């Protein structure tokens, strides 16, 4: 009996405990909102869901990945920790795409005073420039200095030239040398003519002593410096006074900055300016403003501000991008910020820029801005940017193309992700034409003749891609050079800015691949190349044959990368044979 009572008490206790766990947590604290099914829909409506292995998949609700079947996760809590309008690129991709940034507006200094930030680049000091010219007509038989960047010393042999006039003048010298006692004036006139052609007394004396005429005559450097331009090639026929080389002494260089119209009152010759180069970001170089252009450019609405930098250690190379900071009282318009036109993308409805949001990492955020007006190559931003923010000024379309291919928000895709048309099967292959995808990628227009020529040139790309699959760097180099020539020959005159940007960057990447014999470096270039080639190909109206856009989420340091193929079967160009089948078809272009 006692035992039965104990069992009964235990059963009651267990029942009460279960009831607590089942019903006790339904109690609502004061002010706490109970989420019913409708509330869940409201909360989740602003979230986007993606696949950790296939980030191009982006859906407004949870579910399974149509490619691999994995559970989708919130895009904001993905492995990279980035929101839908942010994209992270590798350092190599940034360098290969030549992505450049600049800080906009004015910022407050350490002591609270305002500072003007100017963007510019290093150029040779024109005061130290010289031209090495030919002093007589002739044909360049040999050019001993034949590429830019070569350092030369005064008196160094530059070229060998054949000149009929110089041969005739030497014969005259030998003839008049026998008559110098009887006709000294004639003899001196011939010697002076040779001196005007920069022949030294020693050279003239050697001709007289040997009694032989030189067919090919040397040209020597008259200055010391660095070759900045080669203006003639071996075999060229040059005229008297025609430049062969341009030489600059780079012991000092100019840092030239563009200053906007509203910054002019704060700029004066003699002001101190701190210069920072991308190559030496942690070091500031002090200089003095030596020139402020008195004439405002009508095209850009800017003036050139110049400072002279000492370059005894060859730290500064012409073409380097630099930033200049001028501290002190400045007068700037807090309401508006002026940026280069290359930084702004316009869709017809929205104006967008990419802002670098991390100091240490190449993370870029797409930002919608409001434009106040445009003056030449400068755009005034009324809203959307803050003074001191760092924006992308070169390579904007490259970043946007990468964002589009990763399923992020992009210029023509406000929501991000790949449009799910309902034509996809369980393998994740989307059997739609490119017209169905115009809402998910940047739309470009090409003439029928360009599309035909591009399709022919694309075969050279596909051959090169197959060489990547085989892992043959020498064959890749050969095919890349062939492809660069094929794409370079495509007509460009009717292309718009966006179309030309993608084509020119593709040609640059073909050339970079062709100039590298290292397979890993070639694959790094291939990542950038494919972003542009795929973007163009997706806009072909009726390609001659079906093309498969394929993607591997593990390529490009797990950032993902795409490529084109004629076959549905995956053959990955980014890895060796062990990863040959890694990837999936993300779109069919037909």
UniProtKB/TrEMBL annotation:
The keyword Transport applies. Residues 252-328 form the CusB-like beta-barrel domain. Residues 136-247 form the CusB-like barrel-sandwich hybrid domain. One of its GO terms (cellular component) is membrane. GO terms for molecular function: transition metal ion binding; transmembrane transporter activity. Residues 166-214 form the CusB-like three alpha-helical bundle domain. This is Efflux RND transporter periplasmic adaptor subunit. It comes from Maribacter litoralis.
